[in-house]
Structures are given as structure tokens and as C-alpha cells.
Amino acid sequence: MPLKLPATALISDRYGLSDRPSAAIASCVLQDVGMIKEGDHSLVIDKNNVRREKNKIRDYLQKKSPNTKILEVYFDSRKNNTYFQKKIRNKMYRKLKKKKHISLVQEPGEQYIGHMTSKSENGSEIFKNITCYLENKNVDFKQLIAIGCDETATNTGWKIGVIHNIEVKLGHLCSGLYSWCILTNFLIDICFKI
User: Fold this and answer.
1) How confident is the model at residue 25, as a pLDDT?
2) How confident is the model at residue 181, as a pLDDT?
3) Beta strand ranges found along 46-137 (DSSP E)
4) Terminus-to-terminus CA distance in the chain, angstroms?
């Protein structure tokens, strides 16, 4: 019977660990507490176990409260190496490319909404990805009270920043009841705990 690893999957996602190191750490903990004995490898955790658990917990969190009214949206992004298949002549090759991964969290309740990848690091492209994702979730931007992000120029730039694009979409500056929040790294870590 395979082990259930929801906490391992959550923490692994929170700290950006890939599947292999997460599996190695979890297996070492089980060995340290005496659950894995020499010669008995039935409880050793494989990277595929961690990957499956991550997918299960992400699906669960997305389906947990689909009808909850989203009042505030916070987003953060991170560049990761991503493998993809490239066809050269008649042969497929595995290539490595840096992609920007964007995570979305809703308030109240610090609920994980989802994540997406962006084709470019441009604020306009990230804005398009976020709005498309939120529109698929039936979120109306005019109903949002606040949008939060970190203070990078991509997010806060006055010409093509994500916040500027949101202001253009709404037709007014974000002020008054509708506001945007620039978060420090400490607050982002608190807001994005999954």
C-alpha cells in the first residue's frame, strides 16, 4: 500500500523543491525514525510518489472551494528550468528552457487558486495569463477588492507592469476601495503558504 504524502507535497510546493530532493528528504526522515529497515525498501519514497501527491493535492485544493467568492487575489512568480521536447528532423530531443511560473492565492482564507506558466517575462503577457485564468474561474475583476504582488518592476512598472494593465482594463487607477498591495518578501512567504 503506497504512503499518502499530502503534507510532504504541500511543503515541497511551498519551498519550490523538485520531486527528487523531496523524495530523498522524506525517505531519510522515515529511515531516521526507524520505519525503513535495512533490506526492506517497501516504504522508500520515489520521486514519482511525490509528483503524484503534488498533483492530487493541487487538484483537491482547486476543487475544494470552486464557488467561494474571491475578494482578493495575490500572485507571485518564479523562474524555473522546464524540460520540453523539441523535434529536430525526425528525432525528438529533450531541451531545457527557463519559464516563468505564476502562482495565484485568494483571500479570504489563503486558498490556493492555481498556477500557470508565462511565455515571456513581460508584464503584459503575465497580465493576459492571469486574466485568462481568472476569467475561466468566473472571477470578475470589478468585484475584487485588492490585488497583491511583490515589488518587481514587471509587476509595478508604470508602462507595461501587471498592475498598470489591470488599471487600464478597469479604466481607472486602483485607489479607494479597490487597491493593490505591494508585499515584501516576508509577507509574500506568509500569504503564499499552501
Assistant:
1) 92
2) 60
3) 72-88, 91-107, 111-118
4) 27
Give the Cα separation of 144 and 23 in Å (integer).
Answer: 39
Q: Is 105 helix (H, G, I), strand (E, B) or coil?
A: strand
Cα separations in angstroms, 136 against 109, 129, 133, 185: 21, 11, 5, 29
Please choose, from the candidates 155, 179, 65, 81, the residue with its C-alpha nearest in 3D space to the C-alpha of residue 114: 65
pLDDT tens-digit series, residues 25-76: 999 998 899 888 888 888 889 999 999 998 888 788 777 755 556 678 888 8
**CA distances from residue 164 to 86, 113, 159, 161, 186 in whole angstroms, order as listed:** 35, 22, 7, 5, 24
Packing angle of the helix pair 19-32, 6-14 (nearest 10 deg)? 130
Q: Indicate whether this model's pTM tops 0.70.
A: no
136: which residues sit within 8 A by CB, 6+ positions away? none
Could you check whether the bond before residue 21 is cis, i.e. omega within 30 degrees of 0?
no
pLDDT at position 193 over 50: no
Domain ranges of the chain: 6-64, 72-191
Across-strand partners of 92?
87
The CATH classification number of 72-191 equals: 3.30.420
